[in-house]
């Protein structure tokens, strides 16, 4: 988390998004602000006690494992449009929301997620990261449905 704090201090991202329960919990307990957290109250698919975040608003969405629903896209858009810290609580699985966040977040946003048994990953949103995410999303069809 020390490296993440340094990265945030250097890059001064316009928004910070945390995807995953452990990442969201660790960022909150270490005083790292987030504009948006995406959680499902699970770690490695095992139910856990809900994580307390800095969120002032909570949006709810259903999203099954291995899929990205149209509601995932619209809920992420709504969360990004909020002026206050927002939590997206996913009924199902939040793992693929990293792709949605990178695809939709403003330029230079920092999307932070956990790589199980590896550590933390921080992705700066830019043209290149969006392009890579789009290639992954395209390869996932029909598991991904964009909202209309």
Keywords:
single chain; 148 residues; alpha/beta; six-stranded mixed beta sheet; two-stranded antiparallel sheet; globular
Task: Please explain how this structure is put together.
There is one protein chain. The protein is built from 5 helices and 8 strands. With 148 residues, it is of the alpha/beta class. The chain has one domain (15-90, 99-140). A 6-stranded mixed sheet has the order 5-6-2-1-7-8, with helices on both faces. Strands 3-4 form a two-stranded antiparallel sheet. The longest helix is centred in the last third of the chain and has 14 residues, at 127-140. The chain is globular and about 40 Å long.
Major β-sheet profile: 6 strands, mixed
Intertermini distance = 38 Å
Give the class from helix and strand content and strand pairing: alpha/beta
Number of helices: 5
Low-pLDDT ranges: none
Strand order of the largest sheet: 5-6-2-1-7-8
Q: Given the C-alpha coordinates, what overall shape results?
A: globular
| Average pLDDT metric | 94
Supply Rg. Answer: 14 Å
Name the helix and strand elements from N-terminus to C-terminus, one letter apiece: HEHEEEEHEHEEH
Strand proportion, as a percent range, falls in 25-35%
- How many domains? 1
Percentage of residues in helical conformation = 25-40%
The number of distinct β-strands equals: 8
């Amino acid at each position: 988390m020390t490296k993440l704090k340094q990265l945030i201090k250097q890059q001064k991202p316009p928004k910070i998004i945390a995807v995953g329960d452990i990442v969201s919990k660790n960022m909150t307990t270490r005083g790292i602000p987030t504009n948006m957290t995406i959680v499902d109250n699970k770690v490695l698919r095992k139910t856990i006690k809900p994580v307390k975040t800095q969120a002032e608003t909570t949006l709810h969405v259903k999203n099954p494992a291995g899929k990205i629903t149209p509601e995932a896209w619209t809920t992420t858009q709504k969360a990004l449009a909020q002026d206050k810290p927002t939590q997206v609580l996913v009924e199902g699985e939040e793992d693929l929301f990293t792709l949605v966040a990178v695809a939709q977040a403003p330029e230079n946003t920092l999307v932070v997620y956990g790589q199980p048994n590896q550590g933390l990953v921080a992705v700066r949103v830019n043209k290149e990261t969006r392009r890579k995410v789009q290639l992954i999303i395209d390869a996932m069809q029909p598991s991904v449905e964009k909202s209309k």
